[in-house]
């Protein structure tokens, strides 16, 4: 009786593993394509939103963890900030929320203002609610347009690859607060 139960358990586990492997092989691609808006399944998905980075005031969305090595540096080399910035449909802070940008940015350039930015774009509304994109790259906030690679994602964006283009919409040079327009193009 015990031998039969063990054999049945082994058979059940093998069947479950086979079923899960088949879902991974066939299901995750179908899930991602099921959420794609474009008629062409090979067309990239385009996301457009505004990123609000607030470092001043009583309730900042980005907090400095480490100051620059030299406080008088124009490049802030060595500064590290952690962020949980709102993403909205429009440039106004009160515009409809679409998600959060969570991660960090570090001043890593000694010659010009340049950040290493590592963030998750966590989507909280619309057809991609519950999915996220991982962005990791160089961000020079004083450049007209910056391009950073999308290196992965979750949910509808599993196996995502692509790029994000950032363009400063508004910047307060006294406080460092900024609103940045993002266009994100991803294959998934």
UniProtKB/TrEMBL annotation:
Keywords: Apoplast, Secreted, Signal. One of its GO terms (cellular component) is apoplast. Coiled coil: none annotated. Residues 1-21 form the signal peptide. It comes from the Eukaryota. Its main location: secreted. One of its GO terms (biological process) is phenylpropanoid biosynthetic process. The keyword Signal applies. InterPro entries: Allene_oxi_cyc_Dirigent (IPR044859), Dirigent (IPR004265). Pfam families: Dirigent (PF03018). Belongs to the plant dirigent protein family. Dirigent proteins impart stereoselectivity on the phenoxy radical-coupling reaction, yielding optically active lignans from two molecules of coniferyl alcohol in the biosynthesis of lignans, flavonolignans, and alkaloids and thus plays a central role in plant secondary metabolism. This is Dirigent protein.
């Amino acid at each position: 009786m015990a031998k039969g139960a063990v054999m049945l358990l082994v058979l059940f586990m093998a069947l479950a593993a086979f079923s899960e492997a088949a879902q991974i092989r066939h299901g995750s691609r179908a899930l991602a394509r099921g959420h794609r808006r474009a008629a062409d399944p090979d067309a990239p998905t385009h996301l457009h939103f505004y990123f609000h980075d607030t470092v001043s005031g009583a309730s900042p969305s980005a907090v400095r963890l480490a100051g620059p090595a030299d406080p008088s540096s124009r490049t802030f080399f060595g500064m590290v900030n952690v962020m949980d910035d709102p993403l909205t449909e429009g440039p106004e802070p009160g515009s409809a929320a679409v998600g959060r940008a969570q991660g960090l940015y570090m001043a890593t350039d000694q010659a010009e203002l340049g950040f290493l930015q590592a963030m998750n774009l966590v989507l909280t509304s619309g057809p991609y609610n519950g999915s996220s994109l991982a962005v990791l790259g160089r961000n020079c906030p004083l450049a007209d347009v910056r391009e950073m690679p999308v290196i992965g994602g979750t949910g509808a964006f599993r196996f995502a690859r692509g790029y994000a283009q950032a363009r400063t919409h508004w910047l307060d040079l006294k406080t460092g607060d900024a609103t940045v327009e993002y266009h994100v193009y991803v294959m998934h």
